[in-house]
Write a structure and sequence with these properties.
The complex is a heterodimer of chains A (about 110) and B (about 120). With about 110 residues, chain A is mainly beta. Chain A contains no helices and eleven strands. In chain A, strand 5 and strand 6 form a beta hairpin. Chain B is mostly beta strands and about 120 residues long. The chains are: A mainly beta (about 110), B mainly beta (about 120).
Chain lengths: ~110, ~120
């Protein structure tokens, strides 16, 4: 079973700053990794799929990179609405499971 | 507009049962695989169960296998989660989630969730 470990647990930044979030897989997942954003009181929404592709409607300030076991979500210039919790996620075909990281909270400094 | 609306949450005693429902609209429901994901208050996300287009293929997380049952009704555009033998650790928000048809393994739409509280 693949385990996803996100770091840091909390990132304290100011609006306009750059955010760099990490997700490490316990074994290679190739590029099969997604990122979700969850704002307070809301359901998660898909930001990035296949490690680096933005989902429909996601602003260009969000970008993903990585392959194998190490992945990064970058927000180039934080907007007020970007302060949220971010989760990485992977799907294993066999056994069929969908795994999330424990999340990184991006909070206002 | 895609909408997933969960219902059926509430307070239940340990060992009890609850049936969650999810009403889907704004898309051709029978063409999408569906899932349930939960989130304990203040905690992270946990995938629980998957159901294929026809309902013939179903998967569960180990944490709920044998206690939860997923089903769907394509005629009524709905998916359900029957939860039996509930435990305190099942307390969470339960989300109905649509699987993307464009990207394998990703979830493209989520409901707003329904809260299940297991307590005596």
């Amino acid at each position: 079973e693949i385990v996803l470990t996100q770091s840091p647990a909390t990132l304290s930044l100011s609006p306009g700053e750059r955010a760099t979030l990490s997700c490490r897989a316990s074994q290679s997942v190739s590029r099969s990794l997604g990122w979700y954003q969850q704002r307070p009181g809301q359901a998660p929404r898909l930001l990035i799929y296949d490690a680096s592709n933005r989902a429909t409607g996601i602003p260009g300030r969000f970008s993903g990179s990585g392959s194998g076991t190490d992945f990064t979500l970058t927000i180039t210039s934080l907007e007020p609405e970007d302060f949220a919790v971010y989760y990485c996620q992977h799907h294993d075909s066999w056994p069929p499971t969908w795994t999330f990281g424990q999340g990184t909270k991006v909070e206002i400094k | 507009e895609v909408q997933l609306v969960e219902s059926g949450g509430g307070l239940v005693q340990p060992g009890g049962s609850l049936r969650l429902s999810c009403a889907a609209s704004g898309f051709t429901f029978r063409n999408y695989e569906m899932n349930w994901v939960r989130q304990a208050p203040g905690k992270g996300l946990e995938w629980l169960s998957y159901i294929s287009l026809s309902g013939a293929t179903i998967y569960y997380a180990d944490s709920v296998k044998g206690r939860f049952t997923i089903s769907r009704d394509n005629a009524k555009n709905s998916v359900h989660l029957q939860m039996d033998s509930l435990r305190a650790e099942d307390t969470a928000f339960y989300y109905c989630v649509r699987a993307s048809t464009e990207v394998e393994g990703m979830f493209d739409y989520w409901g707003q969730g329904t809260l299940v509280t297991v307590s005596s």
